[in-house]
Design a protein that fits this description.
The structure holds two protein chains of two kinds. By secondary structure, chain A is of the alpha/beta class. Chain A has one domain: 3-Layer(aba) Sandwich (Rossmann fold), CATH 3.40.50.2300. Chain A is built from four helices and four strands. The longest helix of chain A has 16 residues, at 16-31. By secondary structure, chain B is α/β, with parallel strands linked by helices. Chain B has a single domain, classed as Mannitol-specific EII, Chain A. Helices cover 40% and strands 26% of the residues of chain B. Chain B is built from five helices and five strands; from the N terminus they run βααββββααα. Chain B has a five-stranded mixed beta sheet with strand order 1-4-5-3-2. The longest helix of chain B has 16 residues, at 102-117. Chain B is globular and about 35 Å long. The mean pLDDT of chain B is 91. The chains are: A alpha/beta, B alpha/beta.
């Protein structure tokens, strides 16, 4: 068993949609029994968080740079419900691989 | 509550709903402009099943009281898609959120997301015959207070 996976959740303000998405990520990690630590941030803080928090994956509801070198997932399906199962499967895969 | 509503664009829809909120003393004069600006950076259109939804809002400093202004458009308008700057979503249900505390916005958003994901609810809202019907649907799903 590997250690805790770190997931960074980013949205425009770090409070609203990020909180909803962060809860989903925690639920999913619990379902598959993967220990996870989730940190929320504003889109503008992503690069700084990569250095300080060193996440295994990023889930964002706002556009993020593509050159981060870390798997980035669009978290909007957790809000709209469309494509949620696919996103869930991809995220689980990424968490298990991390 | 604007049902039915006609708007030419997302900006127009926000301005119309904002005018209602302003008239009700719910938001400051700055709300409409702030919301339109925010929409450019952080779009709020959601590609929900059946009927597209947008949840335009401004920062708490532009808000005086909590309220949601709902507009159901006869013809959809294109809103920017949340998280995808190059895409738009055809939106028929516009929920303009006036929230004065960020913690409350989180709760409201959670309830809204659950409501949007309940099968058939968006279709019910889009097909509602009267504002009262929509109030009933929202009351049923969102009891924030």
């Amino acid at each position: 068993m590997k250690g805790e996976r770190r997931v960074l959740v980013a949205c425009g303000t770090a409070i609203a949609t990020a909180t909803v998405v962060a809860q989903k990520v925690k639920e999913i990690a619990k379902e598959v029994d993967v220990p996870v630590r989730v940190v929320q941030c504003k889109a503008a803080e992503i690069r700084g968080q990569i250095i300080t928090f060193d996440p295994h994956a990023i889930v964002a509801t706002t556009p993020v740079p593509k050159d981060l070198g870390i798997p980035v997932f669009n978290g909007v399906p957790f809000l709209s419900g469309v494509g949620m199962d696919e996103l869930k499967a991809q995220l689980i895969e990424a968490l298990k691989k991390a | 509550m604007l049902v039915p509503m006609r708007a030419e664009s997302a900006t127009d829809a926000i301005a119309q709903l904002g005018a209602r909120l302003q008239a009700g003393g719910v938001v400051k004069d700055s709300w409409v402009q702030a919301t339109i600006e925010r929409e450019k950076t952080f779009a709020t259109g959601l590609p929900t099943p059946e009927v597209g939804v947008a949840i335009p809002h401004a920062d708490v400093e532009h808000v005086l009281q909590q309220a949601i202004a709902v507009g159901v458009l006869e013809q959809p308008v294109e809103f920017g898609e949340m998280g995808s700057p190059d895409s738009t979503v055809p939106v028929r249900i516009v929920c303009a959120l006036a929230v004065a505390q960020s913690e409350l916005l989180v709760t409201l958003l959670q309830r809204l997301v659950e409501m949007f994901q309940s099968p058939g609810v968006l279709g019910q809202i889009a097909g509602a015959q009267s504002p009262a019907e929509i109030v009933k649907i929202f009351d049923h799903h969102i009891q924030v207070k």
